[in-house]
Specification:
heterodimer; A: 573 residues; mainly alpha; 0% strand; B: 338 residues; Cytochrome Bc1 Complex, Chain D, domain 2; three-stranded antiparallel β-sheet; 3 strands
Chain lengths: 573, 338
């Protein structure tokens, strides 16, 4: 009775309705992609059996020619037509004396998937920059595989809590290893590596100092390595999410950021064009803001009592918003138009999104603590500005989709663009869903449940990780001249996409059921037992995601391994 | 006129300045004003052992799954009698040492239950030790990790001070050995048992919980005067942790309620007395905590009736009035306002 009254009410709540609509969008885009594939298949099959006449082709061939009407006779003749084999080429020997053809085949690489266009251009990138980009991305890929292996293991512990009894592998210690590794190891290193190329390219100059790039590489990797060992040994900063590394370890990371900022800034400063491309706005700001953020997050003087909680809400939200999201947006503004070979739809919209990102994102950290003992006005500000986040998100999404408009057919022919499409769609879906989640009603149902975990994977994985993959696949073949296997890129895409969908939908459903059971006053342990099925589906989705990372690692290796002949000349770009 | 498009220094400086200003206003200043909160009157200062226990709590990452905040909404009422206030964290949320900051105790996930009043809900030291040694031994269906590294398996108990954990013999590799708690385990349990809400001073207006959406007046069955609340829910919430969901107890730790002579006694007075006042008469079992300040008369009547009529037990039901009468002698002045 009671459940029913909530049950009917929940679907009239704007936050819940909004989230369902958003999920529908992802499902819709996924179905569109699948439908396009199926359509191609059906076309292929149908092409074999055209018969507009009442008599079937087989009967027609068996019939006596004397009784045929004129259309049937013409059809019969057409059925019996056979190519001689030289209609197009003539009978003379062909020779490509202008060397126009670089590759020819009568059979596609595989019969199952459509062949994508190979990257034709090779960019002249200085060897030193290539090396920097490759090593940043290589380390990032390593941390991705390691971090998600840990994540997968943790997901399985929900189903089998007695998997091990080793202190270093216990859930409480490993959970921050997973989150910090994918944050500071995978996403951060990948962003900086991709950023090095953007900064140099859009400033038409060379990187100010490669030495600083290598120092930062070492510092950041050292921070993740030492930090993880500390966490597993039970040494952490106090358990606040994403600042579990104690300050000496976090300091290594901050130094890496400062070096990177100075290097990027000096490179932009010596640019050979007057305008600062909008990507660089985002990238430079992300670095500056994150340095401020780390400083505020770790300084001690205002962090006793609930002061720590306010800073925690601010820090963890800005870590995502000002670092990952801002930097990644900067990368999209370069790599998306570059992959489509056309300019960004609206430069001004990018600038608007930049300033509103700064204004609104900064103020919403406390929405992680709605109904907590933190000041009510702080919670209200956070909720109001969470809604304000619609402005930069809609500005950004519109800009990216309008840039893609007119090139939809290119998406089917490219192995890069599907990653961009999913990333952009999740940018809209994940961000607006987050705003809905900040409402007070939705906090009743979803806060503290597995729904939070679904949201963070929708954003850090659906947005950031998919965009980073898109950028890697867009850049590396052009830089090294080596293409990955298209089948494996396709497998990577679909495993990651389907896995993520299974992961998020199961946890969102499980979280909603759990929250409603809590409101109904069910005994806590019962709600734990009831979530088991959803956790199993999460582990299955997570496994697909993890397998896709192994494929990505292999693809990265194929693209990055040393070419037998230097692909490019060491010239300034 | 500042031209952000061409002037990199201005662009970066403005972005930096505005962000610092916003951050100061939304985070640093509000956080700083929270530095001057006083503890509640009568709030106990943490002991050394409790502090060490808190350090273990942080180091093992308990905050990943357990919150310590009672929100001001109806559904959080099960975790505490009033919403949490900043002063509650006066002693626990202090910078730990040079390397570690103030612990993030409020948490963000309730994969496990909220621990704000765990010391009140579950004051038994042995229960906590057994639960840390193997959560599924006392709470079937729990997914909490085991913490065997906080315990030692020994052949014989060496000194008197060592705390023996009542692990049933069939759960041990060598049935003759004993499990003893390390100092870390004892400290952690000391910390957990210390967790309870300090009552607000006399005369403070009563705490307000915002009603759950769409459930006004329905969620709290306590307000219905005639019908008793759901005894089986109270049983699994309050009793099953020790006596187990099947009421068979745990040999060597917690006695069974199934077939118990006290439970099946026609006169419920002794059973109600034990529920209200707690019980520590039998050396072979852990201590039963008093529920006089945890449950209302109606709740106690409901759970007593549930136990007396389930698990094969057959005894006549009792009433809230009977509980009230026993309360006036066993625990006078503890009547709870529903």
């Amino acid at each position: 009775m009671f459940l029913l009254s909530i049950g009917s009410g929940i679907f009239t709540q704007p936050g819940v309705v909004g989230t369902l609509v958003l999920l529908g969008i992802v499902l819709f885009i996924g179905s569109l992609l699948i439908a396009a594939r199926v359509q191609v298949l059906i076309k292929r099959i149908k092409a074999g059996q055209t018969s507009a006449l009442e008599v079937s082709d087989d009967d027609l061939l068996a019939m006596d020619t004397a009784v045929l009407t004129a259309p049937l006779a013409r059809r019969r003749a057409a059925l019996l037509f056979r190519l001689r084999g030289d209609e197009l080429g003539g009978r003379e020997e062909a020779f490509d004396d202008k060397a126009l053809i670089s590759r020819s085949t009568s059979e596609p690489d595989n019969p199952l998937v459509e062949e994508k266009i190979y990257s034709r251009t090779t960019l002249a990138v200085p060897q030193a920059l290539q090396k920097v980009v490759l090593w940043y991305l290589g380390a990032a890929t390593f941390w991705l595989v390691f971090g998600t292996l840990v994540g997968q293991y943790l997901g399985m512990k929900f189903v089998w809590p007695d998997m091990d009894e080793v202190a270093w592998l216990s859930f409480g210690r490993l959970r921050p290893v997973h989150t910090n590794t994918v944050f500071w190891g995978w996403a951060s290193l990948a962003m900086i590596g991709l950023g090095y190329f953007v900064i140099a390219r859009t400033s038409s100059t060379v990187i100010h100092s490669y030495k600083r790039a290598w120092w930062a590489w070492g510092l950041i990797n050292a921070s993740v390595l030492i930090g993880n060992i500390c966490l597993m040994a039970g040494i952490n900063n106090g358990g606040g999410e994403y600042r579990e590394y104690i300050w000496p370890v976090a300091l290594l990371f901050a130094l890496g950021l400062i070096l990177t900022f100075r290097n990027f800034y000096a490179t932009v400063k010596r640019r050979r064009i007057a305008e600062i491309y909008v990507s660089n706005w985002y990238i430079l700001a992300a670095l500056v803001w994150t340095i401020v953020l780390a400083t505020i997050g770790y300084l001690p003087w205002y962090q006793n009592g609930l002061g720590e909680t306010i800073i925690q809400g601010y820090y963890m939200h800005q870590g995502v918003g000002m670092w990952f999201m801002t930097f990644t947006l900067g990368l999209i503004y370069y790599y998306l138009p570059a992959s489509l070979n056309k300019p960004i739809y609206s430069y001004s919209l990018g600038v608007l999104a930049f300033w509103t990102q700064m204004l609104f994102y900064t103020l919403i950290g406390t929405h992680h603590f709605v109904f907590s003992p933190l000041p009510w006005w702080l919670q209200t500000v956070a909720i109001v500005f969470s809604v304000g986040m619609f402005i930069p998100v809609i500005a950004g999404t519109t800009n990216f989709l309008m840039t893609m408009r007119g090139s939809w057919s290119a998406i089917g022919k490219s192995y890069v663009l599907p990653f961009f499409l999913v990333g952009v769609v999740y940018y809209f879906v994940g961000s607006t869903q987050g705003s809905f989640q900040a409402f007070r009603f939705t906090n009743h149902v979803w806060h503290f449940t597995d729904f939070n975990v679904a949201h963070s994977h929708m954003t850090m994985y659906g947005i950031i990780t998919f965009i980073l993959w898109a950028c890697v696949y867009a850049l590396l073949p052009k830089m090294t001249g080596r293409e990955p296997s298209q089948v494996l890129v396709g497998a990577h895409f679909w495993l990651a996409f389907v896995g993520l969908f299974a992961y998020t939908v199961s946890l969102m459903a499980g979280g909603t059921v759990k929250g409603m059971d809590w409101i109904a006053g069910k005994p806590f342990i019962e709600t734990v037992v009831n979530t088991r099925g959803y956790w199993t589906w999460r582990a299955i989705g997570g496994s697909l995601m993890f397998v896709s990372h192994l494929l990505f690692a292999w693809n990265f290796y194929t693209m990055a391994r040393r070419s037998p002949v230097p692909a490019t000349l060491p010239q300034p770009v | 006129m500042i031209n952000f498009h061409k002037d990199h220094a201005n662009l970066v400086n403005v972005a930096l300045l505005v962000f610092v200003l916003l951050s100061t206003g939304i985070a640093v200043v509000p956080a700083d004003t929270m530095q001057h909160n006083e503890p509640l009157p009568g709030m106990p200062v943490m002991t050394e052992a409790q502090r060490r226990g808190l350090a273990i709590y942080v180091s093992e990452g308990c905050v990943a799954c357990h919150t310590q905040q009672v929100r001001n909404i109806e559904m959080d009422r099960v975790w505490g009698s009033r919403p949490s206030i900043p002063s509650d964290y006066h002693y626990s949320k202090q910078r730990m040492n040079v390397w570690q900051q103030s612990p993030s105790l409020l948490g963000s996930e309730r994969t496990g239950p909220d621990l704000t009043s765990i010391g009140q809900r579950q004051p038994g030291e042995q229960w906590h030790l057994l639960h840390l040694y193997d959560p599924r031994m006392v709470v079937k269906g729990s997914i909490m990790p085991r913490y065997p590294w906080l315990f030692q398996e020994v052949d014989s108990v060496a000194s008197i001070g060592q705390v023996v954990v009542p692990v049933p013999a069939d759960r041990l590799k060598d049935p003759k050995s004993k499990v003893i708690a390390t100092r870390a385990a004892n400290d952690l349990v000391a910390y957990l048992i210390s967790l309870e809400q300090t009552p607000l001073p006399e005369g403070t207006p009563p705490a307000v919980f915002l009603p759950s959406p769409g459930a006004k007046g329905e969620a709290v069955a306590l307000t219905t005067p005639d019908a008793l609340p759901d005894g089986s829910a109270i049983f699994s919430q309050t009793c099953a942790a020790c006596h187990q969901a099947d009421a068979k107890g745990l040999a060597g730790a917690f006695p069974p309620l199934m077939g118990s002579s006290i439970v099946n006694n026609e006169d419920p007075t002794q059973m109600i007395t034990i529920v209200l006042g707690g019980y520590d008469a039998r050396a072979e079992f852990g201590v039963m905590p008093a529920q006089a300040e945890m449950l209302t008369d109606a709740q106690i009547a409901a759970v007593v009736n549930h136990v007396r009529s389930s698990f094969g037990n057959e005894a006549p039901p009792t009433t809230a009035e009977a509980v009230k009468a026993v309360r006036s002698t066993v625990a006078p002045g503890t009547a709870l306002q529903p």
